[in-house]
């Protein structure tokens, strides 16, 4: 009888440990590498062209889709003074015209509205809803690994990785995240993502006095301009 009781106690202890182990791991978010981040996120990132009335290109940049019906965000300086905005999705679909819903020049944020996805056929002429990125609910931390995606060339999205150098720095009267993820011309307006693939901010520019340190607009500045359903 004593052996049976001891065996039962040991079984209960092991079972409790297993339950605890499962619960702990269930609450741990997945961590993705650069290849997986790009695979999961690239379809929600698009190439932006700013066109003049004669169809010449005035500026280029990157945009990020936030809702299936076409709400998106980019850096304001990308679309400043735009006469017409056109986008190209990762799957090759050209989207035009793109409307500016709201913007804040100081924050360097512009909220865009892409055409109804039902009217934008894919290569096989079938309807495809817009892919989107999820806004992170957590603030970035010093040293956190992040990824940047953008379009330095048409039809050529790239991904880079780095860390958060600081979650908050006042630059020209604006709060910015600083990151070492490599940024080049054309990536402005593109996403900065954490290791779960969540949007931490959008690319704003670089610091001329610091080599390889770049500026990121925090999601709190995005939320202040987004439609209520996305805040």
What does this structure look like?
The chain is built from 4 helices and 13 strands. The protein has 2 domains: 42-119, Thrombin, subunit H (Beta Barrel); 145-230, Trypsin-like serine proteases (Thrombin, subunit H). The strands form 2 sheets. Strands 5-4-1-2-3-7-6 form a 7-stranded antiparallel β-sheet. Strands 8-9-10-13-12-11 form a 6-stranded antiparallel β-barrel. The chain is globular, with a radius of gyration of 22 Å. The chain is α+β, with helices and mostly antiparallel strands and 231 residues long. Residues 4-25 have low confidence and may be disordered. The longest helix is centred in the N-terminal third of the chain and has 25 residues, at 2-26. Keywords: Hydrolase, Protease, Serine protease. This is S1-C subfamily serine protease. InterPro entries: Chloro_Bact_Ser_Proteases (IPR051201), Peptidase_S1_PA (IPR009003), Peptidase_S1_PA_chymotrypsin (IPR043504), Peptidase_S1C (IPR001940).
